[in-house]
Design brief:
Radius of gyration: 40 Å
CATH architecture of the domain at 282-518: Alpha-Beta Barrel
Structural class: alpha/beta
CATH superfamily of the domain at 282-518: EAL domain
Length: 519
């Protein structure tokens, strides 16, 4: 039954490995093309807004300069000032002087045609007035935008507001309109009537109609709105261009994932089923590797290590079946099985030897287990063993999610357990990271011990632990020179083949008793 479920699972994963990367590459190609489309549309819309504000600012500046003149109205000096302002301001076509909304003279006319401007279309908070009008003192029928102060007015060609070249290869249209009366000021192309109706809603800033995307921005201080739009029909061409990049990547990922899954299936299908059988049949054993005090050579404790004996008498490496247990969701079941075996093996002996501890390795999943703390408590109570005799070893990656793990660790410490960081230096460690951890012991990984003379990081790790008042345990000590170096540098404990390999329970108790009697 388990084999059938395993095959169904891997078949599903294999199908996903084939389909998902290719599907994601197609999705990503479309996403990138759309992002580029909207980015270019937004960029052009923002540039139109900037241009509109620039033109308005220049108009205000021109009006301030005109209002600041002191010469008599329409005198040669006054007219020269108006002409100088029109000449030096890029977007200004004409500057007029008015009396009661009637132009009297301008930068183009010494004596203007007597026309009367209607009430303004918009009055800004700063008092400047705005018109969209074809009325002018030249008698021309030409739509212009005007901005006026109390006595002066500047005429602006509406094209100035939208005379911005798009950065996109695709055609982007734009329109400037008045917010107060919904008047069109200038447009590069007629706007459909149904779009006009939609943009009247002040809450609408983006809409899509008839394969066209419309972007609406409003400038309340100017009483103006800007619409930019572009057809989505060229998107298909952009998507095809993106597919030239993303589809090969998706196909390669799919092939690679398929190859890896087939290898994984071949290697893991049978061991996983065997592990389930091993857990159910109590086939997994626990061996104990002594941990020695470097100061006096006396045993301080031992690390409990799982051993899985195969039918041919060999042992399967924990580096294989521990990750397999994690991948298949069996790690907590395996850990709880090991905990029960530790107390069954050493319960009476640990009660007689309160100075000796046993270290148990916990995975990230074990920290989330709601049943493991209860199991430990019940076993300690049953055998009459102090909680401080059980040290919990957690790898560095177990601290990556502090919001989840720290409360669990705090609970274990309150129960009396000591906490050790296992395989230190191979994961996510840093000084700031260590300062935040409520732990007791730091275990230096074997890779650092093997290269003491060539890796200058090891002394820094030791000094870091001293600064934080953490005990240190060196793993994988195999030579006397390593032992001496570690002792000289202040490491308190060591374990490794220099002292003993991991031993079955009977051999471990004999070894430990011999050591204790010798010291």
């Amino acid at each position: 039954m388990r084999t059938r479920h395993l095959m169904a699972l891997f078949t599903g994963v294999l199908i996903l490995a084939i389909i998902l990367p290719i599907s994601l590459s197609i999705w990503q190609a479309a996403r990138q093309a759309k992002m580029q489309f909207y980015r270019e549309l937004d960029d052009y819309s923002n540039r139109i807004v900037v241009r509109t504000l620039q033109v308005a600012d220049q108009a205000r500046e021109a009006l301030r300069e005109a209002d600041a003149h002191t010469a008599a109205s329409c005198s040669p000096e006054h007219l020269l000032t108006l002409r100088r302002i029109a000449y030096t301001h890029r977007y200004i076509q004409e500057v007029l002087w008015l009396r009661d909304s009637v132009p009297q003279c301008s930068s183009l006319e010494d004596h203007s045609v007597a026309v009367t401007f209607p009430p303004p279309d918009h009055i800004a908070p700063d008092g400047y007035r705005t018109w969209l009008t074809s009325i002018n003192d030249l008698g021309l029928d030409h739509q212009m935008t005007a901005m006026g102060s109390r006595q002066h007015m500047v005429m602006i060609d509406p094209v100035s507001f939208i005379d911005v070249v798009p950065a996109s290869e695709e055609k982007i249209h734009t329109m400037l309109f008045g917010l107060d009366h919904q008047k069109m000021v200038i447009s590069s192309q007629p706007l459909p009537a149904k779009v006009w109706q939609r943009i009247k809603d002040p809450h609408v800033d983006m809409l899509t109609l008839d394969n066209t995307v419309y972007r609406i921005q409003r400038i309340p201080e100017l009483g103006s709105g800007i619409v930019t739009w572009s057809s989505t029909l060229p998107l298909q061409q952009h998507i095809r261009q993106q597919l030239f990049f993303w589809l090969p990547a998706g196909i390669f990922t799919s092939l690679l994932a398929t190859w890896l899954l087939l290898r994984l299936l071949r290697h893991l299908r049978s061991p996983r089923n065997s592990m389930l059988d091993a857990l159910n049949s109590e086939a997994i054993q626990v061996h104990y590797q002594p941990i020695i005090s470097l100061q006096d050579g006396k045993i301080a404790g031992a690390e409990a290590l799982a051993r899985w004996q195969q039918p041919d008498g060999t042992f399967l490496s924990p580096d294989i079946f521990i990750p397999l247990a994690e991948q298949t969701g069996l790690i907590t079941q395996l850990t709880e099985d090991i905990v029960r075996k530790i107390f069954a093996d050493l319960g009476p002996w640990l009660r007689q030897r309160p100075e000796v501890h046993i270290s148990i390795n916990l995975s990230v999943d074990d920290l989330r287990s709601p049943t493991l703390p209860t199991l430990l408590h019940n076993q300690l109570q049953h055998w009459g063993i102090a909680a401080e005799q059980i040290i919990l070893e957690i790898t560095e990656r177990g601290f990556v999610d502090p919001e989840t793990t720290m409360p669990v660790i705090a609970h274990y410490r309150q129960a009396g357990h000591r906490i050790s960081i296992d395989d230190f230096g191979t994961g996510y460690s840093s000084l700031s990271y260590l300062q935040k951890l409520d732990v007791d012991t730091l275990k230096i990984d074997k890779s650092f011990v093997d290269t003491l003379e060539y890796r200058p990081l090891t002394p820094h790790i030791i000094e870091m632990a001293k600064a934080l008042n953490l005990a240190t345990v060196a793993e994988g000590v195999e030579t006397e020179s390593q032992r001496d170096w570690l002792r000289q540098h202040g490491v308190q404990y060591a374990q490794g083949w220099l002292y003993s390999k991991a031993l079955p329970k009977e051999q471990f108790i004999l070894w430990a008793e011999h050591n204790l009697h010798a010291h």
